Amino acid sequence: xxxxxxxxxxxxxxxxxxxxxxxxxxxxxxxxxxxxxxxxxxxxxxxxxxxxxxxxxxxxxxxxxxxxxxxxxxxxxxxxxxxxxxxxxxxxxxxxxxxxxxxxxxxxxxxxxxxxxxxxxxxxxxxxxxxxxxxxxxxxxxxxxxxxxxxxxxxxxxxxxxxxxxxxxxxxxxxxxxxxxxxxxxxxxxxxxxxxxxxxxxxxxxxxxxxxxxxxxxxxxxxxxxxxxxxxxxxxxxxxxxxxxxxxxxxxxxxxxxxxxxxxxxxxxxxxxxxxxxxxxxxxxxxxxxxxxxxxxxxxxxxxxxxxxxxxxxxxxxxxxxxxxxxxxxxxxxxxxxxxxxxxxxxxxxxxxxxxxxxxxxxxxxxxxxxxxxxxxxxxxxxxxxxxxxxxxxxxxxxxxxxxxxxxxxxxxxxxxxxxxxxxxxxxxxxxxxxxxxxxxxxxxxxxxxxxxxxxxxxxxxxxxxxxxxxxxxxxxxxxxxxxxxxxxxxxxxxxxxxxxxxxxxxxxxxxxxxxxxxxxxxxxxxxxxxxxxxxxxxxxxxxxxxxxxxxxxxxxxxxxxxxxxxxxxxxxxxxxxxxxxxxxxxxxxxxxxxxxxxxxxxxxxxxxxxxxxxxxxxxxxxxxxxxxxxxxxxxxxxxxxxxxxxxxxxxxxxxxxxxxxxxxxxxxxxxxxxxxxxxxxxxxxxxxxxxxxxxxxxxxxxxxxxxxxxxxxxxxxxxxxxxxxxxxxxxxxxxxxxxxxxxxxxxxxxxxxxxxxxxxxxxxxxxxxxxxxxxxxxxxxxxxxxxxxxxxxxxxxxxxxxxxxxxxxxxxxxxxxxxxxxxxxxxxxxxxxxxxxxxxxxxxxxxxxxxxxxxxxxxxxxxxxxxxxxxxxxxxxxxxxxxxxxxxxxxxxxxxxxxxxxxxxxx
Length: 908
Prior knowledge:
mainly beta
């Protein structure tokens, strides 16, 4: 097995001239259009019919690659493209730990742009058949690519060099266009089942049906898809761990809200018969002010590794020729996704006992014997799980969205055409995080108005009544968000005049886009959010754009485009793009481009939602300095509060992100069966939106203003006044219990200068043995100078590999097909500066094998296709690492281990 793995990896290294884009072929949509002899097709990256993208590379995933992948989701398909750094060779959706920060939708990240998933919008534009879709997410304006059922997917086009001058502000890093089937006639039923061999709890199933009908001048089809998967907990995964390691490499746990209470206690020695003759002076036998109690436990294994998810999609398309010159196309979708995951049981960190003097202790314990010790609890962390009434409610996140996109095409003349597009859609999004009413919890311990003390004993939670526990855990942090989008676009294109290389062509367009966002949030009793009003905001943008294609000679094509946007809230911007393509000899294309981009904050950012959440039980009151916040500047961090207050959302006054980029490359096709090429790119991104990363300890020095220690009452009141949920937070914790305030709200904190080289090649040959294909596609970063967390740093090969590549070998003969894909991510340095042990991430290689069999016309099973897919066939595990804390996972890379998928398709 190891020998085969080495052989396959070697293939990826020794075939630099057998390179493929994304999956199997570096074919542009333009070449597909030419092959179909359909000059009406508009390809991704240009608005002019019958032309190819000038000056830029286009990566495509072809329909046969989609079939061989056997993907049950569109996100699966993004794993074919190494240039999309956050989905290739790893997790194709958000880390569940990030869901608590509102990252429920993973946005495709071309070029590894920093903080791409920590902002509401994105820098990679996602289109469906060339049109936008309504954004989804709570505090996100993202496009969930799984809106499109895999059964209707006709291909994926990626323009990696920006596109803001044609498509708008969010095409800074590039454009990702999902092409659906133009028409379908018949019935197609598809089913898939997947299960893990190492992570046995991982199971998926998917079913879809596609039905379509053609008639004279028209076609309509509809697809219905449903898929489900099970939840996988960290305890099911061998490489996850809640252990942390000290400087000597000794392992222990550090979570404190455990079944066995963890905290401190003061031990008072009674030195005389007087009512106040008690002391906790360490000079007295056995006395002391702060004795540790209990042992920290594992706070990781009970958390989710991969959430449970259920999704239902409906996708429909209608095409109709209304007359000889007018065509209609209408696309519509509906999707509902529900995700849930569990965490370790909820707990609480109680404040210390008010018995802080000898007189108070004596009054509470008048019968203590002289010479005896009396223990008085200090701050104590504990879990509610030991009580039989406790219910560990899962976190729930989801959305429901729909959209309709009509398009009317009018052939004004034999050469000129006008296209009018529209889109209107809506999404409703929710998230609910189970929590604890900390005010009531403390009241049940120490008493307050209307609640008698002693109903909850931190050292005997099991003895509390069920009604007390139910009252405490009837609490959630919930947020709802609604989004709507209306867009109308008109584009006219056609020839202008003749040039030596052909006709000069022009496209002109107008666009109007309006976005609404409304949200409500609540920290209180479960379900109370439903009675709250929404806070709403809207913004619009009016745009004018144009593109010209100039074939100045038979071997040189020059193109230019310009877009002017007028935002209702951010003013105006004008962004140009220039492209040049040279074909000096047959089979060789040289291209170059330059452009500027402008990325405005989203309507959600206009809401300037600032919220806070508490992370309690992290710091043990009275504990060691290692258990309290570490400040490299040496500021006083001695305050022994048990909670951190984390500020989230958007800072007011966000500015637009801007970028300048350029690229130069070539593509060679010396013979029909061989194609190869390379592309150098450079991006200069300024005023990038981002968030503070508290896991990076250097930020305590570089962004000291975003950390506040030893909070005073007035400071606390001022912070709460600026938070949407400030009043609720103030009722939960007092200033004296806040050890640190961390401001992670989105701001224009970042910038980046990114450079690198893409390369690709493919070889496809029809032989007597069958059709043989070889290929590889990859990217190699040469520069990643990033201003992250307010500090410039060289991030090249930090956290993300600078070299990624996908290599494949395929064979097809008759009804049988097979494909072996090797995904490779090179070495990298660990991005967590607190890492112990090996700080180098080793290279990571995943090998996937696909088999397919199509029953032919002569078979009784005509129309049936079967698939067997084995992902991570060698069961490669992530690299394990010893951590100083649990802020980062105890492993590098991500996988579900070996996964076997069985699929069948029947079409008639």
